[in-house]
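Slide 14.
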Amino acid sequence: MKKSLKILLMLNSLMFGTICFGQEAAQENENAIISWIQENAIPINHVEAGNGFEDLQPLKEILKDVKVVGLGEATHGTREFFQIKHRLLEFLLKEMGFTGFAMEASYSACKPINDYVLFGKGDIYEVLTGQGYVPWDTEEMIEMIEWMRAYNENVVEERMVKFYGVDLAYQDIGRKEVLAYLEKVAPEMRSQADSIFKILANEEGKWPIKIDSLSQNIMLHAFPNFQNLMDDLLANKETFIKNSSPYEFDQALQNLRVMRQFMLVNTPGLHPPFMDGGIVRSISMAANLIYLMDQAGPEAKFVIWAHNSHIAKDVWNGDTIMGYELRKKYGDAYYALSLEMNQGSYQTRTFLPPNLLGDLKSLTIPPAPVVSWPWYLAQANVANILLDFRGASKTPELETWVNAPRNIFLAGWVHEAEPKLNYTELEMGRLYDGILYIQTTNPSRPTANALKSAAERKGL
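Slide 15: predicted structure.
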């Protein structure tokens, strides 16, 4: 018995030592990761624009050969994300020669915003609300657009920044432009186009919540006539250009492309069965951005603002997305920057079953869970930092860690009555070129128009 007891004590001692050794090894690994973050993190001294660019100077080396900077966001309703993007836009325009700004917003309905930015046309609050996406209808966006307008008043035409949308909904302006163009070059085609556009306008008015099987069936039957319209336009290209201009023809064709994308995205019978509408939408936004950059010329340098799930540089859950298409097109000249937070709150919109969008609401995020990405970034003990994966020196062990699945906060715009904390395991090193981390966040500030849109159950 004494011998058995002695052996048992020895085994317990060995097991305890193994556990302690394992805990010590894990702690050493954690410490090494935290030290690596601290050594490579670039402190962001100011979130708000108008504070100079001294702390952003390292970006000149990081982005020196970059043509497209993808600015992501873990939520669409975080005040600090709006603010730091505004500040980064100022830096990229003033210090690095960027001139194009594009958003995950309507291709067509953002045109009045561009007219305001370039020429001061219209009322800023009205043109911002007119783009239809309630998450962008904020005081922070107003401040950025007003800055863009002031900037354009003090630079030569070649340096002026332009404001674009790349998304597919709310294409009323595009439809009017196509009808006006057809009236000019082929009046006999206008009636046919108008009848198709009325169908599209009616279905688009139901987007995004009320696009149901009936709407999909309507668009499925309208699609052949729509495709015939595009084909007729292309078949008469030379004649139409003679009666207008290459620019006018190209604008009409692109408006039709975006309308076609909307039909493809929202009609399962029109896109491949292995791709859902969200993936088709993301790829379409990439195509629209590439079109805009081609129009701007070979020296064009653009910022694209979208959700983290769109700007990622590699396949997302096995699917190609906007950022993947941009990396395929531009290689390392596309830089994908994920915006993340640790704790705080953010703005979102409620979903009212069965098919209505409801009021705006602020949600709270507690401190990030231990060993998640935000938790590790918080251990750097700097409120706001940028971590560049490309330039950071990494051992094979650290490379493996950066590319391993790890929890990150990721939230959509619309939420259910009982929202959940949306932590998702992502391979950040594979998906992004860097992370911009904000320690504590607050909700974005909706304009009075946005509150009215939500109360009237309008817009996204």
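Speaker note: DSSP finds 18 helices and twelve strands in the chain.
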